Amino acid sequence: MKVIHTISELKGELDNCRSLGKSIGLVPTMGALHKGHASLVERAVAENDVVVVSIFVNPTQFNDKNDLKNYPRTLEADCALLESVGAAIAFAPSVGEMYPEPDTREFSFAPLDTVMEGACRPGHFNGVAQIVSKLFYAVEPHKAYFGEKDFQQLAIIREMVHRLALDLQIVGCPIVREPDGLALSSRNTLLTSEERERALTISRTLFASLEFAKENTLAATKAFVEKAINDTEGLELEYYQIVDGNTLQEIQEWSDSDYVVGCIALFCGKIRLIDNIKY
Ligand code: PAF
What we know:
- There is one protein chain.
- The chain is about 40% helix and about 20% strand.
- By secondary structure, the chain is of the alpha/beta class.
- The strands form 2 sheets. A 6-stranded parallel β-sheet has the order 1-4-3-2-5-6, with helices on both faces. Strands 7-8-9 form a 3-stranded antiparallel β-sheet, with helices on one face.
- The model has no long low-confidence stretch (mean pLDDT about 100).
- Bound molecules: pantoate (PAF).
- Pantoate binds next to strand 2 and helix 7.
């Protein structure tokens, strides 16, 4: 596996691959890789000749300076994992390489980006669109892979590709969970063992709500989840919204959509976690 730090070297390498008729898959990440990322890379390796994994903690998508400062950075371990799952290139640029000057582009994906994460983390999706579009221009992949844990991000990236008329396929991949149910996240490593225990309430509640939903209204199911989280000491709910999976807008009745997704964001101590479930 090659570790590349500059766009010009990356482009040179990929032009070579393209001239040999090879297909290119991209998995954008912020590093601190776990089994969830590995599953994206494995899928990309199965579906493309050459897989590029970008590792870049993108400052423009952090609306909280402490979150950016504390975000885990584990390049050496990341490269070992990527090599073991068959990535061809790890692209790990510096901030100066990706942002030689400030990116002043302003994206709006309303109403997709005005709800949930967009409402709680102002500027977050603008930063995501800035970096992901730069990565798409640098790599020009045939396919790019994103996890469904960041459900809203996936919808927004699909919309961005559509609006910018980019010629690539976005592949959404299912959430990978720990054996006990906790959705894998790079931020899980920041949880104390006590917080890790409490965080289990999230997936347990979401799964219990699937059963509850069979016999109850959407409003009652929403209240069921909110109460379970609010009753757990150490968890602070930011939102639980039951939305149409395409528009990301809240719905009122189960019959309002045939693609219903419950999206949750909360603080477990100081660590912000998200998860979601399909009804
Ligand atoms: O999901 C992530 O890790 C990031 O938002 C992404 C897509 C790599 C952009 O920085």
